[in-house]
Amino acid sequence: MTTAATTAVLDRAGLSALVAALAADGRTVVGPTVRDGAIVLAELDSAEQLPYGWGVELDAGRYRLRRREDGAAFAHSAGPQSWKNFLHPQREKLWSADRSPDGGLTVRAETATPPSYAFLGVRPCDLRAIAIQDRVLAGGRFKDDGYEARRTGAFLIAVECTEPGATCFCVSMGSGPGADAGFDLALTEVVDGDGHRFHVRVGSEDGARLLAGVPHRAADTATRNSARDAVADAADHMGRAMPPISLRTLMGESLEAERWDDVASRCLTCGNCTMVCPTCFCTTTEEVTDLTGDHTERWQHWDSCFDLDFSLLHGGPVRSSARGRYRQWLTHKLGTWHDQFGSSGCVGCGRCIVWCPAGIDITEEAAALHEEAQR
Hints:
Layout: E1 7-11, H1 12-24, E2 28-35, E3 38-43, E4 54-59, E5 62-67, H2 84-87, E6 91-99, E7 105-109, E8 117-122, H3 124-138, H4 145-151, E9 155-159, H5 170-173, E10 185-192, E11 195-202, H6 205-212, E12 217-218, H7 221-235, H8 247-253, H9 259-266, H10 272-276, E13 283-289, E14 295-302, E15 312-313, E16 316-317, H11 322-341, H12 351-354, H13 362-374
Parallel strand pairs: 2-8, 8-9, 9-10
Antiparallel strand pairs: 1-11, 1-12, 2-3, 4-5, 6-7, 6-14, 10-11, 13-14, 15-16
């Protein structure tokens, strides 16, 4: 029986062999790569497509690639995508229906077999996000069958953070920078005078079997200590932090705060924050019919509580103001998510800060609400 305490070391060739072994096992390997001026998640044919030598500069409403001199593959913060894009895709066909000439109707559920995924480079905050979506989409009374099919058997290779971005605040949400559970393998990248290598921890039997089939060596004390110290140093250098209070209580007591007017004056209600958030899960459905009227399809696609139509009922929307829609998003994410799913809906990845065109900072808003409550 293997445990997460089982450790090893891979060099760059070993990492390449790991990706090749996953592909040979019939898995669709997804990991970070450079494309269109960003580090994005995409299918990988080999480990050489990883963003070796690339880092990022982040701030509120700002994202830039930058070259690194150390050749590190994973020394970058979360990009515009999360693993939600693959497990809970933006668009998914649910069923189709055809009308025959005699007036009969044939309905067919979409039953395509999903890929067998292997995710390489899952940050600890995103590991937590996957666990949250597991509870939301596969753990309740109303399961999403498509999500459950894609999630079942997915192989997760975590990469611990050693260089947090300016917008990261996972420490204050208890979700990083170290990986504690939910992975098959966990890597910590080490680049120092002894070379470029990856400290590996095994978290499952599947992870142990995969590791056994690729070139590796036993973990030495120097590599183990370097990996541990790098993660500890990252925890001490977070770019942002939530106020050290009960955010759930704060949200419940701030429904009439004046701060909502301030943020509403800046918010474009574009929904970017919900699109990049790794835990936001809201969807809607639409029927698409061809010109003949004999064929129709039902599609599920992402929706956002910032969309005016999201709460549209007969007579108009429930939340017609930017204030109401932003307040709904933040109080649900940090407050009432606890009531529904037993945890916060925020993992501290900072994506909503980076990809907000107005540069609205969720940690700044929480701090401002706390300050107003104290006054």
